[in-house]
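Side project, low priority. Logging it here so it doesn't get lost.
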Amino acid sequence: MTEAVFYIFAAVAVLGAAMCVLQRSAVSSLVWLLTTMFALAAIFVLLQAELLGVLQVLVYVGAILVLFLFVVMLLNVDALRQYSRGAVSTAAAVAIGGLLLVELFAIWRYTPARLAAELAQSPQMASDLALAFPAASTNAEAIATRGIVGAVAAPMFQTYLVPFEITSILLLVALVGAVVLAKKRL
């Protein structure tokens, strides 16, 4: 049953992303992006990553998309001149889409059994993973002592507090800039 629900949300996410790109109206595109973000949050919850699901809704849906929607509606982007798609951009889109499909089919063939067989052939690879990701053991210890929320919150509000606040200031400056641009006269 969980697999069926996963596939439903995955289909909604892919459909929403495709419709987001294909819409001519910026507001409609943002609504489809909103649908995609909610479907991704539901997938995170199904994968038992409830914190990521809640953060997806709070950060992306609650903050960034609302900011985008506010700026788009404030600037009235639909009233701006429409750009037509030329032959070069259409050919580039088809080429990029084709490359993505080839990559998707290559990844589809890569199964867990194939990964296990490759790891069995090279036992050195498993030990190299610990060397490649040395912070994994530290993260596991932090999760064991403080829980997942504490392990995420501690670096965010201690180590990365200044970049976190700078990002919020940049979003505020972007919003003020959109208001100034939208005003005909000050």
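Brief comment: The mean pLDDT is 78.
Revisit when time allows.
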